[in-house]
Amino acid sequence: MHAYTASRISLSSHSAQPSLPDAFDPAPLQPVSFFPAGAEIYAQGEKAGAFYQVEFGAVRIYRLLADGRRQISAFHLAGETFGFEADTTHHFFAEAINATAVRVLRLTAGADISRQLLPLALKGLTRAQEHLLVLGRQNAIERVAAFLVDMAERQGGLRQVELPMSRMDIGDYLGLTIETVSRVFTRLKDKGVIRLLSLRSIEILKNDALHCMSE
Amino acid sequence: MHAYTASRISLSSHSAQPSLPDAFDPAPLQPVSFFPAGAEIYAQGEKAGAFYQVEFGAVRIYRLLADGRRQISAFHLAGETFGFEADTTHHFFAEAINATAVRVLRLTAGADISRQLLPLALKGLTRAQEHLLVLGRQNAIERVAAFLVDMAERQGGLRQVELPMSRMDIGDYLGLTIETVSRVFTRLKDKGVIRLLSLRSIEILKNDALHCMSE
DNA sequence: CGAATAGTTGACCGATGTCAATGAAGGTGG
DNA sequence: CCACCTTCATTGACATCGGTCAACTATTCG
After folding, report:
1. Which of A30, A201, B96, B136 could cross-link B35 (Cys pair, CB 3.0–4.6 Å)?
2. Domain span at A184
3. Which residues fall within 8 angstroms of residue A153, CB to CB, at 6 or more apart?
4. Do B66 and B158 fall within a single domain?
């Protein structure tokens, strides 16, 4: 149980959009906003009216309990899209993990918006439901292994995987504490499954073993 | 860790759809299939090509780990819709909990399908993400309380709540064992928060307390 | 009425959380 | 460029919540 002070740095590089034409343009001519590490992209309760595509950097989507407990429901890396909501209100917080640029895609009442958004929403739904299995039924090692496998896949399946987020972020994503995350990393390291190149960069030495552990 | 044998009863009341017109009709003129308790509606890996609306009864959506651990990602009650997927394959199992009827709505390439499906997908996404918070960061009492609050709301906010599913289903939905679910029910009963009318029917005596416990 | 299934309760154990100390890394200013 | 300080990560000792195993009870269905 740890508390957070939502650092609303919220760099006003929002400046980039001075009331745009209200049409959705598939070409990348939409405004790009920059956010420094820790900056809030949107907050729970805010009016939603756009969705976002990560240009570079990484984003965490999360929710807080009254006492400060945090659950990160998703990380979004370069190229991924987030921010669409069931109604006109954001139900989650979105923060830049590192220096991040997001392309802001304004929603219009346009008919074909849904055709573009639906596959993204369904993808997100499947991901969230798969994450439920991890949180509901897997132990600490399985969770971390599943996380690493996922991160590796999303980075092209290379041996070396970059982890843009802190141990605390990983813990809050996996429903674990930082200490447990750290201990599992150490165990995986001792077993020769991974190697820590730096705090935020690992190398997968035994891919099969890792997949096996993630069930 | 408990194992399951997927009872593929799969009543062939599928019979109700003898190759229909390939257009989506919002009026309830679609075929209805009946499933007895425990029958499979679809399985993980099956070809997906329809979505389903519960006419009566209740449905569980779940996934299994290799060793039989099960995570129920959602329950669907009368009036609710389920079964849409990100691609053409089902990623989850769907089973009737009780005797259940579902209206089968065939997907077409139609343009406005997405406009109808998008809000449902987004609703499901929000629900799944909220459930992630429960599984990742709440303890047993909070989970059960949140579950009861949710069930109550979905049944019109009445004092009396019907639980169509077994304790094991509840456990597999909340990431708990049946024993823990049972113990929490007993604690809530002893505190005077709820009253057990029967095994599958509870009365909420202290609504505020229950909401408070669910955080 | 009896058997099978589902739920409850208790005793005990273990995985993970908590608290605390130590160690490593990165940023800032001298 | 280095030293310091702050933040982040690791490690250990211990506590605790929830899981496991087992016995008992209640309910349902034939």
Report:
1. B96
2. 134-214
3. none
4. no
